[in-house]
Amino acid sequence: MRQELLSLPKGLAEEVSRNLVMVARLIDEDPEQAYAYSRIALRLASRVAAVREAAGFAAYATQKYSEALAEFRAAKRMTGSVELWPVMADCERGLGRPERALSMAGEPEVQKLDKAGQVEMRLVAAGARRDMGELDAAIVTLQSPELASNAVHPWTARLRYAYADALLAAGREDEAREWFAKTLEADKDGATDASDRLAEIDGVEFVDAAVLDEDEDADVDDLGDEDDEDEDAAEVAAAERAADQTEYYDEDDEEYEPVDGPDADVDLTDEIVVVEYEDREARDKA
């Protein structure tokens, strides 16, 4: 890319370079913003193959497949390279033309691809088969020496994952589980969600820690409410006992003496029981 930019005036080359750097930085986390930067670079230097390629990938990331395909074709014409062939075929899939993608998988360009490109083309072809409802054919398409190899390459995890996913879609759960496990072995960077798929097959459910915290907070609040209710109930009961005592004694009675001070907490029921017991003992002696 640097060599291509050297063909531009220095100031223009620096401006285009800055926009291409932003495309590379944002294409995964903010594809729409990356696409905006790619349009600026394209407007400044549309005759640079690297710019057309970057614009194609930015459009692809935002699912603008027709635009992406046009940019990839332009870059291919400028360079004569076939390395974009798999992603061009995938654009055909995105446009709802899986038959065209399959046709591209059989073109001579595929033989010119390196090993990574050929594996990528196989993935696209299998995806096209699935688009057409041909699950068994998709599984067969993915079966290859690269899949059977124990060696781990940058594309190994994706190939195994696609195979496991196709097996699961075909109802072959045991085999799918085996290949999701093999995917996990090769996926050192966590590029796939193979661990989640394995857990799903095994019936394991993960609970979000944030949800647990919210539930615990809710339990604490509920406990606090229960404590408040208990305190309210105790206060009501005390008020009712006080009301009963007030009704039992007549304040106009000369013998009525309200209990004040520390003796206010004396349980009058205990006194009544003692009196009754003494009267019964006196009667028994008589």
Automatic annotation (TrEMBL):
InterPro entries: TPR-like_helical_dom_sf. Residues 215-270 are annotated as: Disordered. Residues 215-234, 247-270 have a biased composition (Acidic residues). Gene3D superfamilies: Tetratricopeptide repeat domain. This is Tetratricopeptide repeat protein. It comes from Streptomyces racemochromogenes.
